[in-house]
Each structure stands twice: as C-alpha cells, then as structure tokens.
Design a protein that fits this description.
The chain is of the alpha/beta class. Helix content is 45%, strand content 17%. The strands form ten sheets. Strands 6-5-14-16 form a four-stranded antiparallel β-sheet. A four-stranded mixed β-sheet has the order 10-11-9-12, with helices on one face. The protein has a four-stranded mixed β-sheet with strand order 27-26-29-28. A hairpin with a 6-residue loop joins strand 7 and strand 8. Helix 20 packs across helix 24. It is globular, with a radius of gyration of 35 Å.
C-alpha cells in the first residue's frame, strides 16, 4: 500500500480507532498467565466534555498502558464516569426551567427519572471524545458511579462505617451554597478577588467609657458575635482580657478573650468572633466554649436570632442596614476600601456562607491513620516524591469529612427516621423496617433521609467497587491493588487520600502501589485557563487542526516533574512537523524499496554506518524503557524526538544516500523504521499504526507487538567513528552559521591534529554535508581563518574574501554583550529575596528560562568569537 504524499491525520485516526476497538486489543484477560498491570481512570463527570486537563492525564495514562501491553503485561485500564451530583442536577434543572418546571413540583421520583433519561441521551459525550484522543480503555468494562452494583457497595460501606461509629450526625460549620441550598466541598469553592470595604466598628467596653475597635468585611455577621479576641501579648489590649463588651444593636454582653488567632500586627489587633459563620471563629469558639448563634436561614436571610428590625433581610441588604444603624449610633469608626478574596460556589456563582448545619460526617481522622502509615512505610509511593509531603500535611491535620449533600441526584443516604427521630441505618428499607419493629414492637412508618452522599464518597471506592467488591471476584483478586494512579496534585486530598482510607479499611490493602502526580496545564504565559480570561484552548480543535498525535506528543515532551505545562499552540504545530518528518522518512524508504524483513539480524550488518544506527536504535529502546519506568515521559519523548529527527532522518538517511552497496542499507533502513514505530507507538499511536501496515505486510496490529529488546554486540568503534563525523560536520555548520558564511559558499577545510583515516573514509560525506570544496591536512593556521576544536581535532576554515572579519567580530561582540547584560539583570532579579518571595511561580519559571537562554547564547557567541581568533 503506497503512502499518501502528505501527512493527513484526519484521513486515518477515526478508522484506526474503530479497528482497534473492534479487534478487542484494549481488553484485559483475567485468565492470562501474564503479570497484571492496572490503572483506574479518574472518572470524568458524566456532564463533562474533553478539556486540556483531561487530555493531559489520559495521554499520560494511555502512554503507560500501551507501553505495558507491548511489554507483555495483562493490562486493565478501567473506564467509567462519575455521576457528578451538583453538576448533573444543575444541567437538568436548567432544562426544566426552560420548560417552566422545577424539581420540587415534579417530586423526587419523576425528577430522578428525568436525570437518568438525560444521562442515557447526553451522558456519553466525554467517552466519545476520549476515543478521539486515542485512549485504549477496556470499554466493555465501563462503569458509572451510580450503577446498581456500585450503589450496593456504597450502601455497604456507609452501613459498616456507621455501625463502627465512624459515620455520625453532627452540627458543624459547612460551606453552604444559599442558591443551590446544599453543603459543598472545598473543591467546589472558588476564591474570587473582590474590591470591597473594611468597616471599623466601636464596641463599648462594659463598665467604662472605652471602646474596642474591630474591623470586618461582613458587618451583618456582627449580630451573631459571641466574643472579641485579642492577642494575649498585645501591649495595649491584653489588659482588657476577661472584661466584656456590650454588642451594639443586639445588647448582649460578650467576653473579650485572649487568643493567638488575633494578630497584633494586623488591623486593630482585636477580632470579632462569630463562631456560627466563620471557620476560624468556629475554632476560637471551641477553645473558649463560646455559644454558636446561627443568624441565617438556608437562603442566607436573617432569622429570628437577630433584632426584629433586621429579620428576613437578605444578607447584603442587612449589611447596608447594619452599617447605617452603627453610623447612626456613632459607632462606625471608619470605612476603608479593601481588596480581599471571597469564596463563591463554583457552580452557582454566589458567595458561599459558612453555616452551622446538621450534616452526616465521617471520622476521617481514624481512617487516615493507617493511610498515613501506608505511605510512610512505602506501601504506596508518590512520584515525584515531594508530593508525599502534601499528602502528609493534609492527613496529619484532617478534619471530620462532611459527606451529606442537600441534593436529589446521587447515592441517597441509607438512613431512615422513626416518628421519635430515632435513626435506622440499613442496607435497604426492608432491613430498616426489621430494626424498627424490634424497637417499636409494631409496624411503623419510617421516613428516609432525603440527602445524598458527597460525590467523593462513591469516588473513594472506585478502585475496588469497579472490580466487583464486595463480591470476591476474580478481577478483584487479580487487579487490586492497582499498579499506578495518575492524577493532578489538586485532588490529592479530595480523592487520593480518601481512596487510600477506604481501600485500606475495606480490603486491607492500599488501592495503588504508585501515585504519579502530573503537572497542570496552563496557557503559554503560565496562567490558569478560564472563560473569563478568554485563554481556553479546546483540545478537540487542536486535534482537528494538527492531529491527535501532535497534541499527545506535546504533552509527553512537556511533562517535566514539578513544572506546570505552559501550552503554546506553536509547540503542537512543531510536533505536527515532527510527525510530518516521520511520514516523509517512511515515504522515502518506501519509494526506495526498503522492505522490512522479519529475519533481518541487526547484529550481522557489516557497514560502519549500519552498525552505528542499529546500536543507536538499541540504545534508544533501552533509554525510553528506563524513562517510562521512572514516569519521565518528558525524557523518553525527547529521546525519541532526537533520534528520529536527527539520528535517523538528518544523519543516517543522508549518510546512506551515496552508499553503493544498497541491499544492506535498504534492509537496515526498513528495520530501523519499524523499530521507531514500535518505540514511538505509546506516544503517537495513530501515525505509527498507519505506517506499520505498509511496512509489515500481513502483520497484526502494531499495538499488539512486543516491545523491542535487543541482544547485540557493542561495536563501539563504529559508534565512535560515526559520532566523530557527526560532531565534525555539526561544528563546521555551526561556525558557518555563527559567522554568517553564505549558505551557497563552498569553503576549504584544513585539518590539524587528526588521524587521516576518519577523513579519508568519510571525506565525500563531510564535504557534501558541510558544503566544503576540499579537505586537506596542515600544521599551520593561515590568517583570516575560523578555528574550532572538536574531539581533539583542530578544524581550520580559511575565510579570507568570504566574510569581513572585523565586521563579524564587532557584530558578535555587540550581540554577546546584549545577552550578557540580560543574563546579569535576570540573575540579579532571581537573587533578590523580596522578588522571589512575591513573584508567582510562573513568573519565576519564566525568569529562570530567560536566564538559561541568555547564558546559552553567551556561550554560543563566545564560541563564535573564539573561532575568529
């Protein structure tokens, strides 16, 4: 089959994926004797569509599983989606609103039927898009977090934890969304910078004419104050500790307490304490046994705990009213403009309210202890290792986990209430009725808890519930613990830690042996992508424009540990050019009748250039394997790029064009090309599979091939000889470019301190590729010559009449001075502690890159100046 002249990924990516999927090439085999390798997909929201974060994490995972399949492992890459409680419910509620309906008028049963209908019709968008990314997931095993089997697992876990006193009800502060009317997790809270005000209020000290001044950004909450805190060592205020103030507008006496939370260097040094409406104040309240007065209802309107004049007011209306009332009493000291961050619900877009609410909680501290030990003892390892410190920090300071949500879509909490409020937690209503019968001695109507569980609760069971737990299935025995979890650092606590806790508690084993934390994708300036900034890059548009492989390879080359990916479309375009280069090389080989022979023995080639390229190929396979085992996809991809573009295309194909004995060259070219396709396949699956068939006629799919492992003699002489030739040609080319030698000018080369053998054997090649008109040996250096030393060989290029030496020297000195100045200024900035402390990480990275570039240019120009003598 003849290759098309131009590389056009749109012509083959879709058909190739269909072929892979239909062939069953993605499937695991629980009966296989091969070693198991398992990755659990972080289940994307069923409402979702592919974004760059997805594209990165699934590219990394697919690269690893394709590599492991080729190594001979029995691979399970478990697909599935998350029911995404709030997100999904909001999508359906918006649809209902357009029809003039709402869920409460429909009732729970009808509403849930509508959600399931939406899921069946529209919930598959993300999985279709993952196919476009080339994700080789075991699709017949796809799971959904609301599947009946997974719901049974969720209920079993809830009931068991409740009976072990690890789940309980409590009244604590939660992130309350007054628009959606539900508690939300910290991950669903978005911090937004707001230009607001800081109001300074005077609170009268009891028994004196003195005031203590407190500052607040939320005046309305003063109606719920139960104390004022000052630092125990504050020189001016510590004498007030133990006294009371009369709370304005309300009239109750509240104590002045000493607490380290009050920062003596900040504001007035005194802090109003509202335990029911601020997380820090809640902790102060616990330390001093302060009452918690809840002044808001679920809609963030003021309730009956406040003076009658403010009741039923919206919180923002109440803010204005409180400020006006304080001003009228002469208790408003001043108002300052103040920029601060205000937490908003990421779905509703309204400010969230810390709200005292009765919810279901999980005793995370007890569950965290074994999960903490497991990482400390090395049962699970983080890559890069420093992310273990983030894990430790969260786990050692863990708070009770609020697991209930005031939604309808999700796993409904398996708890029923008797007429006296007694709680019956059971696997199903029948079991709850039996328990109630024992308590009441008669049939009694029970009311089920209306709340559902936090989405992260079912997600925490994902590694074992998807394998059939609580049943002891063959899949659970074979694939659990899984091999590696691939995810971003932003959900180490929300998901990774909770999977560790639940996995250890219910299976006795960690859910994964390795946690690979990849970078986050930013725009080319290092900024977070968002609609408001207008800097979102759509991965599907990139795939349409440049092909899937170009995007995947870009992610791989940029996946450097500890650094976010600054995605520039120009990088993707560059990697499309790489794919084009490979396509052109394959077409060149095909047009020159280079046919792959499965019996070709790379250890028996006789020509030096073939001995060199076969050893370089073996070295490439070993290097890429080692890098992938260490999760250094960046180094692996860069090594492949360097080999394909430079070693194979730029050097080997050029070296072999003038070779007279073509049989061995043709066979070797085809063999190397086929090895490239195997090694590159995990990174760029589509182009490699498309090129595989024309070269390996009658062969099975490339993705089913074995990973290349070679046994070859070293042949170091051949490697050293060809590498020396490459270094010589590269040095001459670099000198020509640096000194502005016209591209068409053929110049002489004089060689000093060299053995003649290398030059005699490769004279024609060196002359052609370095654009020389002659090569001769000398002991002298003529005037007006450029000089370079490579591998101990002195290369002399007489350039009299070709360039103006004085002019070039001035140009190079000027250019070198410019780069030296930039390097000096950038280094000084990076040495400034004040700058490094204040600058965002992306700015620091940008400066470091600028310094590296400046120093590299300094070195390059210095080399050129030295060549001028």
């Amino acid at each position: 089959m003849a290759l098309e002249k131009n590389y056009d990924p749109s012509a083959f990516e879709g058909p190739l994926y269909e072929r892979w999927e239909k062939s069953g090439a993605f499937a695991c085999d629980p009966d296989s004797k091969a070693g198991p390798y398992c990755i659990m997909i972080p289940p994307p929201n069923v409402t979702g569509s592919l974004h760059m974060g997805h594209a990165l994490t699934f590219t990394v995972q697919d690269t690893l599983v394709r590599f492991k399949r080729m190594q001979g492992y029995d691979v399970l890459w478990q697909p599935g989606t998350d029911h995404a409680g709030i997100a999904t419910q909001m999508v359906v509620e918006r649809q209902l609103a357009q029809e003039g309906l709402d869920r409460r008028s429909m009732g729970r049963k009808a509403f849930l039927e509508r959600v399931w209908a939406w899921k069946e019709e529209s919930g598959g968008t993300i999985t279709r898009q993952l196919r476009r990314l080339g994700a080789s997931l075991d699709w017949p095993r796809e799971r959904f977090t609301m599947d009946p089997a997974l719901n049974r697992a969720v209920n079993k876990v809830f009931v068991q934890l409740y009976r072990e006193s690890l789940i309980y009800k409590d009244k604590r502060l939660v992130n309350w969304d007054p628009k959606l009317l539900t508690a939300i997790s910290d991950l669903e809270v978005e911090q937004r910078e707001i230009k607001g005000h800081l109001w300074h209020f005077k609170y009268p000290v009891e028994g004196s004419d003195d005031f203590i001044i407190v500052a607040t950004t939320r005046p309305e909450t003063m109606l719920g104050d139960t104390a004022v805190a000052v630092h125990p060592e504050h020189p001016a205020l510590k004498s007030l500790i133990g006294k009371n103030v009369r709370l304005p507008l309300v009239g109750r006496l509240i104590p002045i307490v000493g607490d380290d939370y009050a920062d003596p260097e900040k504001g007035t040094g005194a802090v109003k304490i509202t335990p029911a409406h601020d997380f820090n104040d809640f902790e102060v309240g616990k330390r001093h046994d302060l009452p918690k007065i809840n002044i808001f209802d679920a809609h963030a309107r003021l309730n009956d705990e406040v003076p009658e004049a403010f009741r039923r007011m919206d919180r923002f209306e109440a803010r204005k009213a409180v400020v006006a009332a304080m001003e009228e009493l002469g208790l408003l000291d001043k108002i300052e403009p103040y920029v601060h961050t205000v937490p908003h619900g990421d779905r509703s877009g309204v400010p969230i309210e810390p709200w005292l609410s009765e919810q279901w909680y999980c005793d995370a501290q007890t569950l965290a202890a074994p999960a903490l030990r497991a990482v400390e003892e090395g049962q699970t390892n983080f890559v890069p290792a420093q992310w273990a410190n983030t894990y430790y920090a969260w786990m050692r300071n863990i708070e009770p986990w609020c697991i209930s949500r005031q939604l309808w879509w999700g796993h409904q909490i398996p708890a029923w209430y008797g007429p006296d409020g007694r709680i019956f937690v059971a696997h199903d209503e029948e079991e709850a009725q039996k328990e109630a019968l024992e308590v009441y001695g008669k049939e009694t109507a029970l009311q089920r808890d209306e709340d559902v569980l936090d989405t992260w609760f079912s997600a925490a069971l994902w590694p074992f519930s998807t394998l059939g737990w609580p049943e002891q299935t063959p899949e659970l025995a074979r694939y659990y613990p899984t091999s590696v979890l691939v995810t971003g650092f932003d959900i180490i606590f929300f998901w990774v830690a909770r999977m560790m806790m639940m996995g250890l508690h219910f299976t006795g084993n960690v859910p994964f042996k390795t946690v690979y934390i990849h970078a986050l994708v930013r725009d080319k300036k290092g900024q977070k992508m968002s609609k408001s900034k207008g800097n979102i890059i759509d991965p599907l548009e990139i795939i349409d424009s440049y092909g899937c492989d170009a995007l995947r390879f870009t992610f791989c080359t940029m996946s450097t540990p500890g650094r976010n990916i600054k995605l520039d479309v120009a990088r993707v375009e560059g990697n499309r050019n790489f794919a084009t280069k490979l396509w052109s090389a394959a077409r060149y080989a095909q047009m020159n009748d280079c046919r792959y022979d499965p019996k070709f023995d790379p250890d028996k080639v006789t020509q030096t250039v073939n001995q060199w390229i076969t050893r370089e190929t073996a070295s490439l396979a070993r290097g890429v394997s080692a890098h992938l085992e260490e999760y250094r996809l960046d180094l692996a991809a860069q090594e492949v790029y360097e080999f394909v573009w430079h070693r194979f295309c730029d050097w080997y194909l050029e070296f072999t064009k003038p070779v007279r004995d073509l049989a061995e060259v043709k066979a070797c070219t085809a063999w190397v090309l086929v090895q490239i396709l195997k090694i590159l396949h995990p990174f760029m699956p589509f182009i490699t599979e498309a090129l595989w068939e024309p070269f390996v006629e009658g062969g099975s799919l490339l993705m089913k091939q074995d990973w290349p492992v070679y046994k070859m003699s070293a042949r170091t002489e051949a490697t050293e000889e060809i590498n020396k030739v490459i270094n010589i040609i590269s040095a001459i080319r670099a000198t020509r470019a640096a000194l502005n030698v016209p591209a068409g000018a053929k110049i002489p080369l004089l060689v000093k301190d060299a053995d003649a053998q290398t030059f005699e054997a490769h004279k024609e090649l060196i002359q052609t590729l370095a654009r020389l008109d002659s090569i001769a040996f000398t002991e002298n250096v003529p005037r007006a010559s450029a000089v370079d030393v490579v591998d101990g060989i002195t290369l002399i290029m007489p350039l009299e009449g070709v360039i103006d030496f004085d002019k070039e020297r001035v140009r190079l000195q000027k250019e070198a001075a410019k780069w030296a100045d930039l390097a000096e200024k950038t280094a000084a900035k990076l040495a400034n502690e004040d700058f490094t402390a204040r600058a965002p990480q992306e700015v620091l990275e940008e400066h470091q890159e600028r310094l590296t570039q400046a120093r590299a240019m300094e070195e390059k120009l210095g080399t050129a100046l030295r060549a001028l003598g």
